[in-house]
Design goal:
283 residues; mainly beta; Pnp Oxidase, Chain A; Elongation Factor Tu (Ef-tu), domain 3; 2 domains; seven-stranded antiparallel sheet; 5 helices; 16 strands; 31% strand; globular
Length: 283
């Protein structure tokens, strides 16, 4: 049970309340943003909760057991608060969220906690974003441990992969543009597939600071998994990191890192496990 500040408890016990809902979002880069559904900005504890964000929450429910009690937030994209570029670049992936209510006539009198959790799946459509909020109990639904896989379970360059990406990060500039997914750099001499499943970060132009995943690469042609939010122009500079398809052959040939491969490429598959003496003789 929450312990409320006496001033807020007295206000809640009154016949009429003046409450506003506030959201505190802490992104993965450590930046915190503050929003409220009040009709004007609120100063709370030295932070300003902006009212022009246009964020609307779904109903907040809590379960008595361990069932996941998620909700959704819907809001308008804007240039000052939550942008499409920030959402696509992953800044808000797994960001921490706290929702609480205050008396907007005396916002420093205390806070009524509503929900804590993390931001999950984000959907964008026509200038509006919808983001899932995962409650604290969602962590209890996570699978503990790993399964055997023929492909690597590490991410290229992480603590388990142990491979430095310095020599696999290459700079370049865009020569021409095909569409919002595809562009060219004729100066690239790497083999086909070298950057496939890697990342590209734009350092200049309208997409500066944005990182996207590369779907395919060949003959200087970059194709991305998702469309870029802003137009790419010839001359835009970028940094591209080599990709890894998580196969043992790629790990050994491209990165000389088979010793750190986190998969079981020689483990028999289900067909071999279910094979009987009859099927062996017929083959």
């Amino acid at each position: 049970m929450q312990q409320l500040e006496p001033a807020l408890a007295e206000h809640l016990a009154g016949e009429v309340t003046t409450l506003a809902t506030c959201w505190r979002v802490t992104r993965r880069d450590g930046v915190s943003q503050y929003f409220t559904d009040h009709d004007s900005d609120l100063a709370i504890g030295g932070d300003v909760y902006v009212a022009r964000s246009g964020i609307v929450p779904s109903a907040v429910t809590s379960q008595a057991g361990l069932a996941v009690d998620n909700l959704e937030l819907e809001g308008m994209l804007d240039s000052e608060n939550i942008t499409q570029e920030g959402l696509l670049s992953g800044l808000y992936d797994h960001a921490e969220l706290e929702i609480f209510m205050v008396n907007y006539q005396a916002p420093d009198d205390g806070q009524l906690h509503v929900k804590s959790g993390w931001l999950g799946e984000v959907t964008l459509r026509e200038g509006v974003f919808v983001v899932e909020v995962r409650g604290l109990s969602a962590a209890l639904q996570q699978t503990i441990g790993e399964v055997y896989t023929p492909t690597c379970r590490a991410q290229l360059g992480d603590a388990r992969c142990k491979k430095s990406l310095v020599s696999y990060t290459h700079s370049g500039t865009v020569d021409s543009v095909e569409n919002e997914f595809t562009f060219y750099d004729a100066a690239r001499g790497e083999a086909a597939g070298y950057f496939s499943y890697g990342n590209i970060t734009f350092t200049t132009g309208a997409n500066a600071g944005l990182t996207m995943e590369i779907r395919d690469f060949g003959n200087g042609r970059f194709s991305l998994f998702l469309p870029l939010p802003n137009a790419v122009e010839p001359g835009d500079a970028y940094l591209a990191v080599a990709g890894c398809d998580k196969r043992i052959e790629t790990c050994a040939a491209r990165f000389a890192n088979a010793v750190n491969f986190r998969g079981e490429p020689h483990l028999p598959g289900n067909d071999r496990i279910l094979e009987t003496s009859a099927t062996r003789s017929s083959s």
